[in-house]
Amino acid sequence: MNGGFALRVCAVSLLALCAHCGANSTPSDPDARVDAAVRDAARDVISEPDASEPSFEDVYFPPTDATARVDAGADGAAVTGHGPPYPVILHHGFAGFRDIGPINYFFNVARDLRSRGETVYEAEVTPFDSAATRARQLAAYVDRVRLETGSAKVIIIAHSQGGLDSRYMISTLGYGDRVALLVTVSTPHRGTNVADTVLGFIPGATEGFINAIAMLFAWTYNEARMRMDLNASLVSLSEREATAFNAANPDDPRVRYWSWAGRSNLRTGVAVCGEARYANEPLRVDSTFLPLAPFAALIEGLDPLNNVNDGMVSVRSARWGEFQGCVPADHFDEVGQIAHTGAILSGFDHVAFYRRIVSDARAAGF
Fold first, then answer.
1. With the CA atoms of 234, 235, 236 and 238 taken in that order, what torsion angle do they form, in degrees rounded to the nearest 10?
2. DSSP secondary structure letter of residue 335
3. From CA 258, how far away is CA 174, in angstroms rounded?
4. What's the domain range around 316?
5. Measured distance CA(308)–CA(293) in Å, rounded
6. Any idea what the CATH number is for the domain that residue 328 is in?
7. Cα separation of 64 and 66, whole Å?
8. Single pTM value for the model
9. pLDDT at 272
């Protein structure tokens, strides 16, 4: 089996794994803070499409005075609302979902934080699309949360591609006045060569086929499934696109940016996890989840000491803004998948991890 074909098989296997998790599952009760009627309307529209089918935003977030400003940018009147503590939005990454039956993307994180008195929302956007498209959907969600809570700003904790969506929303859509803190977890701020490699094996002539497969997989587990563009999603995640994306989306001085990275494949991270808020713990190492192992090896290349990664994103790519540190976890472990309860063998406990992030945010005045 040649290397290119093997990587394609691994990529499709990961998509299939997501689909298998969602197949034949019964959706759990909607988030208490999301309008059930809106979700039901969305299902009706998806099952019986017609020429007048509304957009994603119209279905999930009916137009309001606040959301009307999404398309106009943030040049309108000053944002008003109460100050901290700000509500927390958990935002999923590539191929993500809000919940599959009893399993949510940030597994049991929202439940734990709510039990501690926190106001927590779980966003859901199209699983496969560009950061620009997903950012517009996230912007509508942010406005909805602000309307419901009366809060001037929100805290966003974003995993993987979710961090790129958030940065685009803040910088290009002008949401720096509505986000107090962005915390990214294993976001490929400088791209991941996994995406570049897979893109090399998706010729333009087959994009429709690839996107059709993405739609089929996502249909089983993500409500935000009205359009899919897997190719655009991979481009957003690629190293090829990263330089231009970063130049077009500089940090907003009104927003604090914190970042975390994952390290796996039994790597200690001693060469790349320094200069962080939390000291690296090199004796705690993680074994990469088998489906991610080929990607971990691809990223490491011939320099495993400096190309430490979580099976999808290198530590160097994940570092952004105020670097908080490395955790001994792979890309799935970072959000407790698949359905982790308690600490894994490396000692990493994803629920305690997010509890610490929110605690740090509150201590910092957010």
1. 90
2. G
3. 19
4. 3-46+85-363
5. 12
6. 3.40.50.1820
7. 5
8. 0.78
9. 98
